[in-house]
Structures are given as C-alpha cells and as structure tokens.
Design goal:
The protein contains 14 helices and 15 strands. It is of the alpha/beta class. 53% of the residues are buried.
Length: 373
C-alpha cells in the first residue's frame, strides 16, 4: 500500500501523522510511504531522517493525495484537503465531525473512507485508545495554561494556583472525570490547588475517590452542583466527552455573571463543539476571549502546543491500527474488529457512525451496508 503523510496546515499545528520510527515499520513491511517536504521539520524530524527509514519525500500535498492509497494525518482535513481526497481513498486521522458539518459534507462528497481516531474503541467497547494520549496531554495542559491565565495581567483573578503559606490556593473545578479530567486533576492537585471533580458515573466516582484519597473533592454532577461550584472557582476545566457526539452545553451563558471576575475557563471539549454556551473555537495565536469577565481558552488543538510529545504519544497508539489498514486493507481490518469498526465515520458518501449522524442531523448508514455499497 502507498501511505501518504502530508504536512499539517491547521493554524500553528506542528505535529506530524507519522514520525520516522513509525515510517520504518511500514517500509520494512514492504509498503511505500510518501512524506511531504518539511512535514516534521517543526519538531526536528528532517527530510533526511525520513529518507533514512525509506520514505519518499514529495514537494507538494497534491502529489501526496494523488498517489497515496491511505492518508495518515493528525488533525481534521481542511477544505482544500477535502477537495483533494478521492473515492475509495482511506483517511485516518482525528475528525471530530459532530461539530463540523462543512467537513462532513466535504468528506461525503469526496467518496473517501474516513476513519476517526477519536471513535475507535478499546477491547472493552468503551475506552478510546486513540483519543486517550491527546486527552491525557490536553488535561495536563489545561492546568498549566489555566494557571498562567490566572495571572492578573492575563485577565485572571490574580490568584496563585498553589497559594502560599497563609493564603489559600486556587479553587479548580473540573467538569468530567474521564481521561482528560483525571489528568487535569493530577496536575492541579500536584500544584497544591483545591480541586473538585464533577462526575456522573458511579463507578468512575469510586475510582476517582480511591485514587485521590481526599486530595480532590469528588461530587456528583448535576445542574445544582455545577452552578454552586462554578460561582466560587478560579479555574474551570470543561472535560466532558460523549464519543462521536456534540459535547453537552453544561455552562449556560447566564451563569457567567455569577462567577468571580477573572475566572478562567479552559474548554477541552471544544473539538466537539465545547461544553459552554459561550464557547467558540480559538487558535494558538489568538487563544482567549472574554465574556462577562470570564476568560475563555478554547483552542481546538491544545496538544499542538507541545507537538513533539504529542506526535510521539499519538504515533505509539495509532501505529498498530494504521499497520492493520496497510497490511490487510480497510475492509478486512475493520470488519475483523468491531472496535476498530467504530472508527468508521464516513464511507463512500454516507455517515457510518450513529452519534455523528445524529449530531449532524444526517442519515445514519450501518457500517456493513456502507461497506457493501
């Protein structure tokens, strides 16, 4: 198979779909890997590094898309990339389609087979192994970014996240105790903040309670508790996820005036539309905006801030799945593994993931039917 790795073109996105060590896994199995010129340069993977492991360097993205059987990326394809996709070509990347009807239409119009990292499930049918590494990084970043924004000249409350002797630390509220929320809580408790995690799943609450053992306050999440804790928080992290679907808008606009002026809100769920009514996607060059004295940080590719760590962590998780696609073809790879099949989002013009279809208001096509088509 011919695998194509184009350079990422989303604003200030420096990750790369395949690092040289991953490319070597493909070339040693007899596959051809095309890498766009300077695709990994920003994280110190030069074209020479790629050539040494057998990759072919291409000067333009057009050549990559024209020749490759499968495109491996990091972020969702931009409109000009969707226009280059073709029928039966496999796209393997993050998609986050629930909040992006324009991209969904572009993928459907192309006739490609689009498999999303974020909806591939683990052996338990619930975990998200290809989303997990980026969720871990985003969770940790949410606290480092949030603590920086708490500085008064950045618009925050002016409270040091860990406090000092005689002065209380910041109050940190984490909405959602999944992977990103858990890692946010690890960072926040480690820095000495007063941490509250809102969660609804009983088993997850028990796990969080046992793990943090009093270092974080675990509270059942409902409208009342959210409103109560949001009013007194310096930093709020939105870490809610419904796989494939739009994030629920839990923070209502009328809640903002009740918060402390300078409260910082970091919305990790922005890739899925955000979990506040006031959320809107931002970029690393213009990461924040302020509404009702609440500083919103809604960068849609948070892990892109640490692209070397992110690219390596992502490759470690993605590689086994990408190799299956290359070795066996997409049909056999996903038909043999129902959890891998959950990653199929768009197939030959049809939406093949129920939650994505529901979020977009489009018709859902059963994966086997889409395959048969």
């Amino acid at each position: 198979m011919i695998i194509g790795v184009p350079k990422e073109i989303k604003t200030l996105e420096h990750r790369v779909g395949l690092v040289p060590s991953s490319v070597k896994e493909f070339t040693t199995r007899g596959h051809t890997v095309l890498v766009e010129k300077d695709a990994g340069k920003a994280i110190n993977f030069t074209d020479e590094h790629y050539k040494k492991v057998g990759a072919e360097i291409c000067d333009t993205p057009e050549e990559i898309f024209q020749r490759a059987d499968m495109i491996v990326k990091v972020k969702e394809p931009q409109p000009q990339e969707c226009a280059m996709l073709r029928e039966d070509q496999v796209l393997f990347t993050y998609l986050h389609l629930a909040a992006d009807p324009v991209q969904a239409k572009g993928l459907m119009d192309s006739g490609c087979v689009a498999i999303a990292y974020e909806t591939v499930t683990g052996r338990d049918g619930r975990s998200l192994p290809l989303l997990q590494p980026m969720s871990e990084i985003a969770g940790r970043l949410s606290i480092t970014v949030g603590s920086d924004l708490l500085q008064k000249h950045k618009g925050g409350t002016g409270r040091l996240i860990g406090g000092v002797p005689g002065v209380r630390p910041a109050e940190v509220l984490i909405i959602g105790g999944g992977v990103s929320g858990f890692h946010a809580a690890q960072m926040a408790t480690g820095l000495g903040a007063n941490v509250t995690i809102l969660e609804r799943d009983n088993d997850r609450m028990r796990f969080l309670d046992e793990y943090f053992h009093g270092r974080a306050n675990i509270v059942y999440s409902n409208t009342d508790t959210l409103e109560k804790f949001a009013r007194h928080s310096d930093l709020i992290v939105g870490a809610v996820l419904i796989p494939g679907a739009s994030a629920p808008r839990l923070i209502k606009k009328d809640m903002l005036p009740t918060m402390i002026p300078g409260t910082v809100f970091v919305d990790i769920a922005i890739d899925q539309g955000g979990c506040a009514e006031t959320s809107k996607a931002t970029t690393h060059d213009k990461p924040t905006f302020v509404i009702d004295n609440v500083v919103h940080y809604c960068v849609a590719n948070m892990p892109g801030a640490v692209p070397l760590t992110s690219a390596l962590a992502l490759n470690h998780s993605v590689l086994p799945y990408a190799l299956k696609l290359a070795d066996h073809g997409w049909k056999k790879a996903i038909l043999d593994d129902p959890n891998f099949r959950n990653g199929l989002n768009v197939c030959k013009g049809e939406i093949a993931h129920r939650e994505v279809a529901d979020s977009l208001g489009l018709n859902f096509s059963e994966a086997p039917r889409a395959l048969a088509a």
